[in-house]
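Reopening this one. Same input as before:
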Amino acid sequence: ARVTGLELDGQGNATTFTGHDARFRWRWNEPNVSPAVGEAPTGPPAWFAGFVVRIVDPLTNAILRTEPPAADPVYTYTLERNLDDGGPRRSFRIEVAVRDVYGRTGEYAQLTASNPAPAALDLLRLTGGFREVWVDFAAPTDVDYAGVLVWASTSESFPLDASTLVSDGAGRPAVFSTAPGTRYEYSNFGYA
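Same output, byte for byte:
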């Protein structure tokens, strides 16, 4: 028996997803489980142990996770699992196969899924005030957008680390304190 129709749940042939989790669904070609139109399923055969799911790094082919056999033809790769597997990864391959009660695994169906990063911040605007600067921008509409980091320094070349971080959050505008008559350089990044 083989797994067929592996897809992002409800997305057909799409290979990109949004949000933190990717949910997958599939079918298999066992006639008693996936019957012809109008026929009732009779349940899995006695030899069926479950579906084996593997998550693989598509660049290195390293297997990141192998789930024990499960009966349901669905799987959700959560952000928590992604992080446990050394992520977050924006792209990974899911492989699903049928396993029998003797430990034999069939051919793996594969799908490489990706979750594109939120777009770069747009329409940046700096406004000076009394001993402060406001950094404003058009808030991204991407569901993965979580906030923006802003770093500032009086040096042209400065580290993007905790020592120069002046704002971290989803609120707009980002506001940071300044000294009168001092030139500041800044850098910012949106994050998911």
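So the earlier flakiness isn't reproducible anymore. For the record, The first strand starts at residue 3 and ends at 8.
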